[in-house]
Amino acid sequence: MTAILRGLDHLYPEADCELHRDNPFQLLCATILSAQCTDERVNQVTPLLFAQFPTPAAMAMAPPPALEELIHSTGFFRNKAKNLIGASRAIVERHGGQVPRTMAELCELPGVARKTANVVLGTAFGLAEGIVVDTHVQRLAQRLALTRSSTPEKIEQDLITVIPREWWIQFAHQMIWHGRHCCFARRPDCEHCPLAPNCPSAFQES
Q: Active-site residues: which are they?
C-alpha cells in the first residue's frame, strides 16, 4: 500500500478536484451536476449557472424551467434541477445559508449521498470523513486489489481500512487523475504505468 501511495504522490502531487468552483456552495452544485456527466461538461455549464444563481437563496428561488435550460446538457436535467433547488432551500432554511460541514447533514440534502458529501467535505473544507468513490476510484481499487467489493459503499469501507486517514482526500483525487490519464477503462496503459509493479492486474487487460 505504501508503494502505491508514494507512486500516486509522485505522479500527481498537485491533484485536485477538477470541477471549477469558488466556494463550497458552487462545489456542491457542480458535484450534483456531475452525476452521469463529465467534469468538462459541468465546467462549461456552471459559469452561466452561477452568474444567474450565485447563492443558495438565489438558487432556491430559481424557476425550474430556467434552471433546466441552463443545465440541460449535463443530462437528467429535470431531476438535477429539482435537487439543486431542494438542496439550496434546505441550506437556507436549516443551515443559515451555509453549506453544512458534517456527513449526516450533507446527506440529508436532496441529491446528496456519500460520494457528493465526501467531495464537499474533503475539497471545500479539508475534512477527511471518507473517501470519494467514483467510477475511476472503483475501477482502479479493484485492479490494484485494494477491494473485492462491487458497490461504492463497500469499496469505500475497504479503502478506509487500508489507507491512512491523512491520505484519504488526496488519494481519491490522485486515483481519479490516474484513471483519466493512464488506467483507462477499456485499455489501461500498463506499459507506461509506474504503478504496474505493484498492480496485480497489470498487463492482463491491455
A: 115, 134
Q: How is residue 102 written as a grid cell?
A: 458534517
Cα separation, 21 vs 27, in Å, equals: 5
Tell me the CATH number for domain 2-15+131-198. Answer: 1.10.1670.10
- Determine the Cα–Cα distance for residues 34 and 29; give it in Å rounded to an integer: 9
State in Å, rounded, how far the first CA of the chain is from the last one: 23
Please tell me the CATH superfamily of domain 24-125, with its number: Hypothetical protein; domain 2 (1.10.340.30)
Q: What's the pTM? A: 0.94
Residue 180 C-alpha cell reads as 483519466
- Predicted confidence at residue 205, as pLDDT, reads 52
C-alpha cell read off for 73? 446538457
- pLDDT reported for residue 204: 76
CA atoms in the 13 A half-sphere facing the CB of 149: 14
Cα angle: 38, vertex 43, 49; to 5 degrees: 120
Residue pair 140/179 in contact by the 8 Å Cβ criterion:
yes
| SS3 assignment, position 175 | helix
Q: What is the per-residue pLDDT for 206?
A: 45
